[in-house]
Recover the amino acids of this structure.
């Protein structure tokens, strides 16, 4: 496991699902974490579980005020901020002609604008605490389209592009930025959806911890020359079309 001793992280959407997994992994690797979420009860319980290496803050990622409060808490509590994990996100299906303008704006505001606001709020703290790492959670939907997921796909492509421009702008300050593109992962977001069977080359959905392993690597100094790129963790879902193969 990469060492995060001396690293201070802020994880949005950190109270459950992949975000909770990332928060636990950061503390297990020796880092400190600010868990930001709208789920106050779950977030507070997780911070209590993780002990003195964690603190919870209410965070609506569409609010620049909430973002400032979260960054200030990290600096005030742990002395700085050098890892930002933009994890919070929502999804939703809808056909063209039925999906409303309000639904579109909500999706873009949470999934894309929320990450922009987080980077904006954290920028000075990340520079001051460099070497730093911005880890933007996108999706395989940020690489290929999916019918009925138009707003989600658009938001995740936006995250991919934003990551590259931020990497180019902040690299001179030793602040790196990369996007992570999970495939189907067993989280509350996909609960009730028939997505987990025979997915990708490995014929299974992923577990949150399998994404957290990549997040830890990107947060650590072991990935010091990796920036401005997308990293896919999807069990081979983007490798191609699955077909039945007869064994000899």
């Amino acid at each position: 496991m990469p060492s995060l001793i001396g690293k201070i992280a802020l994880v949005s959407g950190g109270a459950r699902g992949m975000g909770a997994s990332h928060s636990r992994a950061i503390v297990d690797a020796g880092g400190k974490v600010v868990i930001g979420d709208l789920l106050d009860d779950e977030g507070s319980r997780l911070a209590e579980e993780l002990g003195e290496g964690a603190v919870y803050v209410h965070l609506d990622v569409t609010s620049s005020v909430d973002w400032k409060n979260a960054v200030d808490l990290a600096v005030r509590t742990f002395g700085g901020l050098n890892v930002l994990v933009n994890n919070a996100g929502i999804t939703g299906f809808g056909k063209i002609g039925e999906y409303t303008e309000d639904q579109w704006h909500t999706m873009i505001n949470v999934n894309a604008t929320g990450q922009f606001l987080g980077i904006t709020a954290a920028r000075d703290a990340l520079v001051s605490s460099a070497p730093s790492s911005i880890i933007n959670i996108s999706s395989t939907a940020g690489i290929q389209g999916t019918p009925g997921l138009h707003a989600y796909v658009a938001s995740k492509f936006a995250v991919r592009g934003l990551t590259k421009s931020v990497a180019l702008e902040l690299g001179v300050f030793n602040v790196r930025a990369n996007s992570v593109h999970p495939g189907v992962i067993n989280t509350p977001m996909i609960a009730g959806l028939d997505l987990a069977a025979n997915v990708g080359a490995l014929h299974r959905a992923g577990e949150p911890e399998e994404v957290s392993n990549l997040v830890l690597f990107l947060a650590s100094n072991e990935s010091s020359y990796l920036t401005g790129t997308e990293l896919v963790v999807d069990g081979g879902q983007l490798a191609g079309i699955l077909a039945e193969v007869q064994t000899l």
User: Anything to note?
Assistant: The chain has one domain: 8-233. The mean pLDDT is 94.
